[in-house]
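Priority: low. Protein: Regulator of volume decrease after cellular swelling-domain-containing protein. Input follows.
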Amino acid sequence: MAATLVTSVPGFVTPEEHRIIVGSTPASFNDIPPVLRHKEESVSVTFEPSLDGFSEDDAKEGILYVLESVLIFMSKTGKGFQIEYPSITLHAVSRGDTPPSIYCQLDESSAKAMEMLVDPEAPKTNGNVKNPSADESDEEDENEEEETQEDMDMRVLNIVPSRVESLDPIFEALSLCAALHPDPPGSDDEEDFDEALIDAPDDTFEVFTGTEDEELSEVGRAALAHLESIIYDPFEKQQQREPEDPEVVAAGENGNAQPTKEVEEGDGKV
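Result:
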């Protein structure tokens, strides 16, 4: 499971304490406790589907710890859970719900993959061992199993602070910590994106020209500028490395670009 049950909170330090420890040049940086980026008291949580071993009473009230290493919720009942940041595939502020909350999607597929590595002889569906006598040739049953499996690969966590004004600080701390744990190279998302680019037909994408009184919004312009700054064009790099023809450069500076001598004589040279 993406959420692991715990009974205690690991040691941590504040950002100020972390700066002092790092400045003193410790013997090992690996021994430095994780940094606490945000602590929120009087928080309730909900899981959909529910988390085994974590009751509604456990979820009613507790303290949220946003550490750089993991996200931890410790209930007043003495039971809690922790979540690794790579398992949080999406987090957002949800103000439309009652009450407002931090909405998180948790990826359960990685945890199930580890279970299969431990016991490869026991294929599972939704956490239950398949019945060997089941008729797997039934296409309808297989489709239902696949749909249910996809649903079970994701768990929804809602973090509800007692103070609405705490939503933004919690979200910012989550974003900071999640950025410290990027997806490994060659992840499934990157492979799917590459395949989509390869398989996409030529007319899939439309180029925005700004005609017909249309223009990008401020957010759209910012997104476009960001995309242009990260796009790598190998042909542009190659052109920058290739030496320029002095005759063409000279002609361009005079404002009258003329073909080179080889092209005028038609001897096939470029």
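Strands lie at 3-6, 36-48, 62-67, 70-75, 80-84, 88-94, 101-107, 124-125, 128-129, 154-161. The chain is about 35% helix and 20% strand.
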